[in-house]
C-alpha cells in the first residue's frame, strides 16, 4: 500500500509492477496536489475508498490502452492479470460488472491496420473483429477461475429509451445473479457518429448508475489524475477530488494514449456523472487493480457529491452532446422546472442547429441560459412551422401525428439553472 498522499510516478501500460518502485523517479511528483492538503480530505478519501473495499456491487472499467499492445493485438498477459484480480474479488461474494474497451484496438492487428481508423465504417469493422477476440480472451481468462462471461453490447439507445433501459438492467442483473461475469462494451459495430459514447468512461458511469453499483473503478494507463499532463515533470498527483471545484485548475488538455479515446477529460466527466449519482469513483493504473479494489491509496478517488438521483435521464444531463438547441419562453421555463411538464410547441420561440427527430438538444431560455436537455420529437426542418402553436391547432392542421409535445418530460433532464436565473 502506498503511503498517504503519495501517488506513484506516471508510467505507461507496458510497465510492470516493479517499475512502480523505481528510485529514479522525480521527487516533485510525490508532492501532494492541490486538492490533497488537509487531513480531513484524506480521511474523507479513505472513507470513500472503504466503499470500494466493502462494496457488494462494483463496476470496473478498463481502457483500450491497458488491454492491447501498440501493434493492435490483445495483451493477453495483462488481460489475464485483470481477470485474476476480478475473479479473486468475485470469489469473496462481490458482484462485478466489467466495462471493457478494446474492441476497435484489438481489431487493428488482424485487419492489418496500423492505427485507429478515422472513418466510421472502418471503426465498425475493426470493432466487429476485435470484439470477438476480446470476448474469447476474457472467456478463457475467467474460465481459468470457473467463471462464465456474458457479453452485453449496449447502444446509446439502450440507456435512453425506457424499455431498453429496463431491459438492459434486467439482463445485467440476471447475469450477476447467475454468477456470470458481465462484460459490457458499446455496440461499436452499429454505433453511428451522432449516437455513440465513443469512449467507454461515460458509458461505465452510466452502467454504474444502471446497476446501482456501490462504486466505480476506472482502470487506465496512468496512475491517477495529475494537475497537468503527466508527461510534464512539474505535474503533481491528485489523491482526492472532493467536488468538481477541485478540478478547476487541473489541466486535462493532454491527449490520451494513441489507442484510447477521450483521454483524461472523459474520465473526469465519468467521475462527475458517477459521484453526482452518489457513486464513489476511483481512477487508477490497471496494474494497481488489486490495490484499487482493496481500498488502498492508489490513484485518485472522487468523492460522492450528492445522494443518488433516480432519473434514468442522468445521461442526458451529463453525457450527451446536444446536436442542436431550442429557445423557450419564460412560461415554458416555469412549466418545465416547476411543474415537471413536457415542452409543448407553444413555448418554443427558436430553433438552432440542424437535427433529426430523436436527437439530443439543449433547451435554453431567451437569455441563452441552459434549462434542460431532451430528446426532441421533431426534426429541425419541421419545427419552425410548429412553433408557438397549440397542440390542438397542430393536430387539426397537420394531423394527429403532430399534436405532440416537442420534448416529452420522460425524455428530458433539467440542468442546474441557478438561483439568479429564475424567469420573471
Ligand atoms: N491531467 C492529467 N492527468 C492524468 N492523465 C492525463 C491528464 N491529461 C491527460 N492525460 C492522459 O490521459 C491518458 C488516459 O486516457 P486514454 O488514453 O483515453 O486511456 P484509456 O484507454 O485507458 O481510456 C493518459 O495516458 C494520460 O497521458
Ligand atoms: N467501445 C470502444 C471504446 C473505445 C475506446 O478507445 O475507449 P477507451 O480506451 O476507454 O478510451 C472499443 O471497445 O474499442
Structure characterization notes:
This protein has 424 residues and is an alpha/beta fold. It folds into two domains: 17-315, Acetylglutamate kinase-like (Carbamate kinase, 3-Layer(aba) Sandwich); 322-421, Archaeosine Trna-guanine Transglycosylase, Chain: A, domain 4, CATH 2.30.130.10. It has twelve helices and 15 strands. It has helices at residues 39-54, 76-91, 103-108, 120-143, 156-160, 162-177, 201-210, 263-276, 289-293, 314-318, 330-339, 391-398; strands at residues 57-62, 95-100, 149-154, 181-186, 215-220, 225-226, 237-238, 240-241, 280-285, 300-302, 324-328, 348-353, 360-364, 370-375, 412-414. The strands form three sheets. An eight-stranded mixed β-sheet has the order 3-4-2-1-5-9-10-8, sandwiched between helices. The longest helix has 24 residues, at 120-143. The protein is globular. It binds adenosine-5'-diphosphate and ligand VHF. Ligand VHF is lined by residues 63-65, 101-105, 127, 185-186, 188, 199-201, 260-262. InterPro entries: AceGlu_kinase-like_sf, Asp/Glu/Uridylate_kinase, G5K_ProB, Glu/AcGlu_kinase, Glu_5kinase, Glu_5kinase/COase_Synthase, Glutamate_5-kinase_CS, PUA.
Amino acid at each position: 500500500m502506498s503511503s498517504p498522499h503519495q501517488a506513484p510516478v506516471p508510467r505507461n501500460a507496458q510497465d510492470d509492477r516493479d517499475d512502480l518502485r523505481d528510485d529514479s523517479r522525480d521527487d516533485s511528483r510525490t508532492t501532494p496536489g492541490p486538492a490533497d492538503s488537509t487531513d480531513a480530505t484524506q480521511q474523507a478519501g479513505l472513507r470513500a475508498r472503504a466503499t470500494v473495499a466493502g462494496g457488494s456491487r462494483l463496476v470496473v472499467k478498463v481502457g483500450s490502452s491497458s488491454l492491447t499492445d501498440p501493434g493492435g493485438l490483445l495483451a493477453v498477459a495483462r488481460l489475464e492479470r485483470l481477470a485474476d484480480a476480478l475473479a479473486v474479488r468475485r470469489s469473496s461474494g462481490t458482484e462485478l460488472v466489467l466495462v471493457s474497451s478494446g474492441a476497435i484496438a484489438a481489431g487493428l492487428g488482424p485487419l492489418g491496420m496500423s492505427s485507429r481508423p478515422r472513418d466510421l465504417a472502418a471503426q465498425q469493422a475493426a470493432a466487429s473483429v476485435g470484439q470477438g477476440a476480446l470476448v474469447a480472451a476474457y472467456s478463457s481468462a475467467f474460465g481459468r477461475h470457473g467463471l462464465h462471461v456474458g457479453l452485453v453490447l449496449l447502444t446509446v439507445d439502450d440507456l435512453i429509451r425506457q424499455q431498453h433501459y429496463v431491459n438492459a438492467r434486467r439482463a445485467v442483473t440476471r447475469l450477476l445473479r447467475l454468477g456470470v461475469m458481465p462484460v459490457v462494451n458499446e455496440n461499436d459495430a452499429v454505433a453511428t457518429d451522432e449516437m455513440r459514447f465513443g469512449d467507454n468512461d461515460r458509458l461505465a458511469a452510466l452502467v454504474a448508475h444502471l446497476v446501482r453499483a456501490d462504486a466505480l473503478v476506472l482502470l487506465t494507463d496512468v496512475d491517477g489524475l495529475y494537475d497537468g499532463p503527466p508527461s510534464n515533470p512539474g505535474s503533481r498527483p491528485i489523491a482526492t477530488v472532493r467536488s468538481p471545484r477541485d478540478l478547476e485548475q487541473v489541466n486535462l488538455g493532454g491527449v490520451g494514449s494513441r489507442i484510447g479515446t477521450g483521454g483524461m477529460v472523459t474520465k473526469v466527466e465519468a467521475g462527475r456523472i458517477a459521484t453526482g449519482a452518489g457513486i464513489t469513483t476511483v481512477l487508477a493504473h490497471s496494474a494497481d487493480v488489486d490495490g484499487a479494489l482493496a481500498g488502498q491509496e492508489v490513484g485518485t478517488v472522487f468523492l460522492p457529491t450528492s445522494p443518488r438521483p433516480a432519473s434514468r435521464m442522468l445521461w442526458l444531463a451529463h453525457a450527451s452532446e446536444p446536436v442542436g438547441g431550442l429557445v423557450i419562453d419564460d412560461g415554458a421555463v416555469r412549466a418545465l422546472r416547476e411543474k415537471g411538464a413536457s415542452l409543448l410547441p407553444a413555448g418554443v420561440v427558436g430553433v438552432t442547429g440542424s437535427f433529426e427527430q430523436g436527437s439530443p438538444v439543449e433547451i435554453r431560455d431567451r437569455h441563452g441560459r441552459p434549462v434542460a436537455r431532451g430528446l426532441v420529437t421533431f426534426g429541425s426542418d419541421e419545427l419552425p412551422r410548429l412553433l408557438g402553436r397549440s397542440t390542438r391547432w397542430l393536430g387539426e392542421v397537420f394531423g394527429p401525428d403532430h399534436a405532440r409535445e416537442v420534448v416529452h418530460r420522460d425524455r428530458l433532464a433539467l440542468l442546474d439553472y441557478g438561483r439568479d436565473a429564475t424567469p420573471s
